[in-house]
Amino acid sequence: MKLFPTDNFPHVTGNRVSLLQIAETDIEDLIGISFYDAVRAENVQQAWEMQAKINQDYLDGNSIHWGIADNQTHKIVGTCGYYRGLDKGEGELGCVLLPQYYGKGYMTDGMSLAIHFGLQTLGLKRIWAATDQHNGPAIKLLERLNFVKTASLCDGEIEFELIQANS
Q: InterPro entries attached here (predicted)?
């Protein structure tokens, strides 16, 4: 299922941050937050290989993975995207932030843009996220973005679902 244009990766611009495609030049700065199938990259080569898989997933219509860029510095501060469920009109939203940007509102801004894109552009009917039950900052972020806890999952994870105003 092809959900995305292959020739024009969707960039989403907000007041403070933008969501954009991760470039090869960004990879070295993102090693610490580069993951694929819950495995973390340990070096530039692994991070680049993971990004190549992520790029292929996008081309296959299975996911969309953005870098969250500060509009003033143009630095990538984190990543977010939809990683599962798009073929069913829903999406699992995930995110990771570089530690030096914790507590500064970047992820709230980035995730807000991703949520809007998911609802308005992709037409998603359901958006959910999962996090470890001990990840207090992620839980607070999701609650701030109007997600509510819907399930306790195996291995100590909890699932949250976006509650839309009109639902």
A: Acyl_CoA_acyltransferase, GNAT_dom, N-acetyltransferase
Report d(CA 132, CA 109) in Å as an integer: 21
Residue 97: partners with Cβ closer than 8 Å, 6 or more residues away? 33, 68, 77, 78, 106, 107
DSSP string, 100-159: GGTTSSHHHHHHHHHHHIIIIIS--SEEEEEEETT-HHHHHHHHHTTEEEEEE-GGGEEE
pLDDT in tens, 10-54: 999 999 999 999 999 999 999 989 999 889 999 999 999 999 999
Q: Is the CB of residue 80 less than 8 Å from the CB of residue 110?
A: yes
- Residue 76 three-state SS: strand
Determine which helix (DSSP H) or strand (DSSP E) holds 57, and give its type and residue range.
helix 44-59
pLDDT tens per residue, range 73-89? 999 999 999 998 998 99
CA distance 81 to 12: 12
Name every residue whose Cβ is closer than 8 Å to that of residue 138 and which is 6 or more positions away in sequence: 131, 132
Looking at CATH, the fold of the domain delimited by 12-162 is given as Aminopeptidase (3.40.630)
